[in-house]
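Pasting as-is:
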Amino acid sequence: MFFPNYLNRLRLSMMVLLVCGLSANTYGQQMLTEKTSSVTYQEQIDGDIIVCGGGLAGVCAAVSAARHGAKVVLIQDRPMLGGNASSEIRMGICGAKGDQNSETGILEEIQCRNVRYNPLMRYTLWDDAMYSTVVTEPNIRLLLNTSVNDVVMSGDKIAAVKAWNTNNYTHYQVNGKIFIDCTGDGILRLSGAKYRIGRELPSEFDETFLQTGGDAHTMGNSILFQLRKTKEDHPFKAPDWAYHFTDDDFNYDTPKSTIPNIKFNYKKLFPKDNNFWWIEFGGNINTIKDANDIQYELKRIAYGVWEYMKNNPDGRCKNYDLDWIGSLPGKRESARYVGPYMFSQHDAMSGGHFDDVIAYGGWSLDDHDPEAFHKKGRISVEHFAPGLYGLPFRCLYSVNVPNLMFAGRDISATHMGLSGTRVMATCALLGQAAGTGGALALAKNTYPAGISKNYIKELQSELEDDDCMLPYRWRKPNALTLAARVDTSIEVLRNGIDRKWNGVDNGVWVKPGEERIVYTWKKEQTLQGARIIFDSNLKWRSKRMPKLEGLTQRIEVAPMMVKTFHIDAKTKDGWKTVYTDKENYLRLRKVSFAPVKAKALRLVVDSTWGGEKGHVFALDAL
């Protein structure tokens, strides 16, 4: 993959050396000693929005803020992006249940990019699909291997964060205007922001799904492993320090729930369709402070589980080998900030009808027992919500630190509310909403609370324009698009429903080279771009990374996706091509071209990724 932004920064570094009077060649030839060089370094960086944490929430927050004009610094303490979704943890990306409810926006863009450049679904290339999305944004400065360890306050606001980079031995001070904590653990609680760790008493929010509470217990962490199918079969010997399980360790009843819409989950000791999330520990201790002890215990469990499964006399794992085992546990829960609103069980179960809705969830309220793996019996209980539930903007900023925002699993929610919103596709939507909201706050010279009070409709419109569906409402196309005259067969492209919904297609099928989508106006209009939504097949969950490693079947771009297209404008001199794309693989395309006065605009599909026809959900003239 080609990263022009990276090359520009490399050139800038070379220029800095020249300005300092040192050519790259001279610098490399000079002897450095304790008298002429430093062991550690200091650097100060200025930005508008500082995003701490580079999981899916942080990536989407940084990219959305940058695309809306903010100068962004993204700080990530690992050598790769993605957090729980990355190659070193490999948690599955879960989100709203139901095919028509798939999350879009920046998350879908990353997944489409991954399919295009990583058809064998290798995890290290998946890391770089996320990396590509970030480093090609000119408004983002990315700091990998960098841990935030302090904050600088100015009154009740954060003025800067301090961080340490373990690769380049550099201490950073990163100054900013708005700070978004996407670390999951809430490191910016150093600001004095209000927060909670643990479970509320059931009576505080009348949360009937909680059987107990008023304690510091949380859901635990998990270490995963992945299997590979093989032609030969081999035994497995776990390290001596691992657990060595017997049948007695897993001898307990596993009754199913008899209550509608409630599911009990147990350890699953068979290889098929298994990502081993239940190798979980740490909920009874501190998932932040005790992270190293939790990691060791999970390693002991993981190796022991695989030894038990692989060598089981019933042959359940015949022709499976252990292909990969994680070292860094994935976290479900640690600290939660307190915002103006705390999302709870009742909000999820009633659908989350908020005036300030900016994202949605649709995962069950999936509460894991703090004892987790070491409990004999069910280790999680899922309470299925009736459908999608809206999430409010007021859950994404601090109640007492005006310029602090957050997204991911540290949002303002109760323990039970978080059990549904913590999954990564939902976190990605929350990150995009936080980044867009932060950029809008800068543009309006206000803080997030000011967006809630005065500009929430504008924020919602920006999110919808960026292909984020918001529940209980649909995107409204712009006035220029609505003023156009169209054939009745393509009128559906202007209904604002950019996906299949409740059995209705909401799109137009176009045969390459033969059929065109045409908008006309009575009077000449100044046109300078278009917004297009192509069909990337939201039903296709294979875009998400697999539970087994070593797949040999290639995952191809959805066949109905438009691959090449062009846009024509009808000027007084006739039709003129104003934009051409030779290799599209993305669902949302916002294209621009030199302003032109025209009475008509048409989209011409030239080819697809294999389908007889291309499928288009929306066309807006800009």
